[in-house]
Amino acid sequence: MGFCFLILLIATGNIIMAFISIICVAVVVISIGFIIVKLNWDLGVSESLCIVISIGLSVDYCVHLASDYLWSPHSQRRKKMKQTFQNVGISITSGAITTIGSSAFLFGGEIVLFQKFAIIICSTITISFLVAMVLFGSFMHICGPVNGQGDIVRMCQNEDYESEDMKFDDKPIEPN
User: Fold this and answer.
1) What is the pTM of this model?
2) Where are the domains of the chain?
3) What is the pLDDT of residue 59?
Protein backbone atom coordinates (compact mmCIF):
# COMPACT_ATOMS: atom_id res chain seq x y z
CA MET A 1 0.00 0.00 0.00
CA GLY A 2 2.95 2.31 0.64
CA PHE A 3 4.24 1.73 -2.88
CA CYS A 4 0.72 2.31 -4.18
CA PHE A 5 0.61 5.67 -2.34
CA LEU A 6 3.94 6.66 -3.85
CA ILE A 7 2.73 5.80 -7.36
CA LEU A 8 -0.50 7.74 -6.77
CA LEU A 9 1.52 10.71 -5.57
CA ILE A 10 3.72 10.61 -8.66
CA ALA A 11 0.78 10.01 -11.02
CA THR A 12 -1.39 12.82 -9.66
CA GLY A 13 1.26 15.21 -8.37
CA ASN A 14 -1.13 16.09 -5.57
CA ILE A 15 -0.82 14.97 -1.95
CA ILE A 16 -4.52 15.46 -1.18
CA MET A 17 -5.57 13.44 -4.20
CA ALA A 18 -3.07 10.66 -3.41
CA PHE A 19 -4.28 10.48 0.20
CA ILE A 20 -7.97 10.31 -0.77
CA SER A 21 -7.21 7.74 -3.47
CA ILE A 22 -5.26 5.50 -1.08
CA ILE A 23 -8.18 5.61 1.36
CA CYS A 24 -10.43 4.36 -1.45
CA VAL A 25 -7.94 1.63 -2.36
CA ALA A 26 -7.72 0.60 1.30
CA VAL A 27 -11.52 0.30 1.49
CA VAL A 28 -11.50 -2.02 -1.53
CA VAL A 29 -8.61 -4.18 -0.23
CA ILE A 30 -10.18 -4.46 3.24
CA SER A 31 -13.47 -5.47 1.61
CA ILE A 32 -11.69 -8.18 -0.38
CA GLY A 33 -9.98 -9.38 2.79
CA PHE A 34 -13.39 -9.56 4.44
CA ILE A 35 -14.72 -11.67 1.54
CA ILE A 36 -11.74 -14.05 1.85
CA VAL A 37 -12.39 -14.43 5.59
CA LYS A 38 -16.14 -14.93 5.11
CA LEU A 39 -15.49 -17.68 2.54
CA ASN A 40 -13.19 -19.42 5.08
CA TRP A 41 -10.24 -19.53 2.69
CA ASP A 42 -6.88 -20.29 4.25
CA LEU A 43 -4.22 -17.72 3.45
CA GLY A 44 -2.13 -19.53 0.86
CA VAL A 45 -0.35 -18.61 -2.34
CA SER A 46 -3.53 -18.14 -4.38
CA GLU A 47 -5.16 -15.93 -1.73
CA SER A 48 -1.99 -13.83 -1.42
CA LEU A 49 -1.98 -13.38 -5.20
CA CYS A 50 -5.63 -12.41 -5.07
CA ILE A 51 -4.91 -9.69 -2.51
CA VAL A 52 -2.03 -8.28 -4.57
CA ILE A 53 -4.16 -8.37 -7.71
CA SER A 54 -6.98 -6.62 -5.87
CA ILE A 55 -4.65 -3.74 -4.96
CA GLY A 56 -3.68 -3.30 -8.61
CA LEU A 57 -7.26 -3.50 -9.86
CA SER A 58 -8.65 -1.18 -7.19
CA VAL A 59 -6.28 1.67 -8.04
CA ASP A 60 -7.31 1.92 -11.68
CA TYR A 61 -10.68 3.68 -11.45
CA CYS A 62 -9.60 6.16 -8.77
CA VAL A 63 -6.53 7.16 -10.78
CA HIS A 64 -8.61 7.87 -13.88
CA LEU A 65 -11.11 9.95 -11.92
CA ALA A 66 -8.34 11.76 -10.03
CA SER A 67 -6.45 12.62 -13.19
CA ASP A 68 -9.49 14.06 -14.94
CA TYR A 69 -10.52 15.96 -11.80
CA LEU A 70 -7.10 17.59 -11.52
CA TRP A 71 -7.04 18.59 -15.19
CA SER A 72 -10.52 20.12 -15.08
CA PRO A 73 -10.46 23.87 -15.75
CA HIS A 74 -13.37 24.50 -13.36
CA SER A 75 -12.74 26.10 -9.99
CA GLN A 76 -15.68 24.57 -8.09
CA ARG A 77 -15.58 20.99 -6.81
CA ARG A 78 -19.10 20.19 -7.99
CA LYS A 79 -18.37 21.31 -11.55
CA LYS A 80 -15.04 19.48 -11.58
CA MET A 81 -16.71 16.21 -10.52
CA LYS A 82 -19.58 16.68 -12.97
CA GLN A 83 -17.08 17.06 -15.80
CA THR A 84 -15.04 14.12 -14.49
CA PHE A 85 -18.08 11.83 -14.41
CA GLN A 86 -19.08 12.97 -17.91
CA ASN A 87 -15.58 12.49 -19.37
CA VAL A 88 -14.39 9.34 -17.64
CA GLY A 89 -17.53 7.81 -16.14
CA ILE A 90 -18.63 5.95 -19.27
CA SER A 91 -15.13 4.56 -19.84
CA ILE A 92 -14.89 3.34 -16.26
CA THR A 93 -18.36 1.80 -16.45
CA SER A 94 -17.53 0.07 -19.73
CA GLY A 95 -14.22 -1.19 -18.34
CA ALA A 96 -15.95 -2.60 -15.26
CA ILE A 97 -18.58 -4.38 -17.34
CA THR A 98 -16.05 -5.93 -19.72
CA THR A 99 -13.72 -7.02 -16.91
CA ILE A 100 -16.55 -8.64 -14.95
CA GLY A 101 -17.86 -10.24 -18.14
CA SER A 102 -14.51 -11.70 -19.08
CA SER A 103 -13.71 -12.93 -15.58
CA ALA A 104 -17.13 -14.57 -15.30
CA PHE A 105 -15.84 -17.32 -17.58
CA LEU A 106 -13.44 -18.34 -14.79
CA PHE A 107 -16.43 -19.50 -12.74
CA GLY A 108 -16.77 -22.43 -15.16
CA GLY A 109 -13.26 -23.66 -14.48
CA GLU A 110 -12.79 -26.97 -12.72
CA ILE A 111 -9.59 -25.83 -11.00
CA VAL A 112 -10.28 -24.20 -7.63
CA LEU A 113 -7.71 -21.46 -8.33
CA PHE A 114 -9.73 -20.25 -11.32
CA GLN A 115 -12.91 -20.14 -9.27
CA LYS A 116 -11.16 -18.16 -6.53
CA PHE A 117 -9.77 -15.72 -9.09
CA ALA A 118 -13.26 -15.32 -10.55
CA ILE A 119 -14.70 -14.44 -7.15
CA ILE A 120 -11.87 -12.04 -6.31
CA ILE A 121 -11.75 -10.30 -9.68
CA CYS A 122 -15.52 -9.85 -9.93
CA SER A 123 -15.71 -8.69 -6.31
CA THR A 124 -12.76 -6.34 -6.67
CA ILE A 125 -14.09 -4.73 -9.84
CA THR A 126 -17.60 -4.32 -8.42
CA ILE A 127 -16.40 -2.88 -5.11
CA SER A 128 -13.76 -0.73 -6.82
CA PHE A 129 -16.33 0.68 -9.23
CA LEU A 130 -18.74 1.53 -6.41
CA VAL A 131 -16.01 3.01 -4.22
CA ALA A 132 -14.62 5.12 -7.08
CA MET A 133 -17.99 6.43 -8.21
CA VAL A 134 -19.59 6.92 -4.79
CA LEU A 135 -16.91 7.26 -2.08
CA PHE A 136 -14.21 8.94 -4.18
CA GLY A 137 -16.83 11.21 -5.77
CA SER A 138 -18.13 12.14 -2.32
CA PHE A 139 -14.64 12.91 -1.05
CA MET A 140 -14.02 15.11 -4.07
CA HIS A 141 -17.27 17.01 -3.49
CA ILE A 142 -16.38 17.54 0.18
CA CYS A 143 -12.62 18.12 0.22
CA GLY A 144 -11.24 17.73 -3.30
CA PRO A 145 -8.31 19.99 -4.13
CA VAL A 146 -9.14 23.26 -5.88
CA ASN A 147 -6.91 26.12 -7.02
CA GLY A 148 -3.72 24.07 -6.74
CA GLN A 149 -4.25 22.86 -3.17
CA GLY A 150 -1.94 19.97 -2.35
CA ASP A 151 0.05 20.31 -5.58
CA ILE A 152 3.54 19.05 -4.75
CA VAL A 153 5.20 20.97 -7.58
CA ARG A 154 3.66 24.23 -6.40
CA MET A 155 4.72 23.43 -2.81
CA CYS A 156 8.33 22.98 -3.95
CA GLN A 157 8.22 26.18 -5.97
CA ASN A 158 6.93 28.14 -2.97
CA GLU A 159 10.05 27.13 -1.04
CA ASP A 160 12.16 28.48 -3.90
CA TYR A 161 10.21 31.74 -3.95
CA GLU A 162 10.75 32.18 -0.22
CA SER A 163 14.51 31.89 -0.68
CA GLU A 164 14.37 34.46 -3.52
CA ASP A 165 12.80 36.97 -1.13
CA MET A 166 16.10 37.21 0.73
CA LYS A 167 18.35 40.08 -0.29
CA PHE A 168 21.56 39.14 -2.06
CA ASP A 169 24.19 41.17 -3.80
CA ASP A 170 23.59 41.44 -7.51
CA LYS A 171 27.26 40.82 -8.25
CA PRO A 172 28.01 37.52 -9.99
CA ILE A 173 30.22 35.06 -8.15
CA GLU A 174 33.64 34.84 -9.77
CA PRO A 175 35.47 31.51 -9.83
CA ASN A 176 38.70 31.16 -7.80
Assistant:
1) 0.81
2) 2-146
3) 86
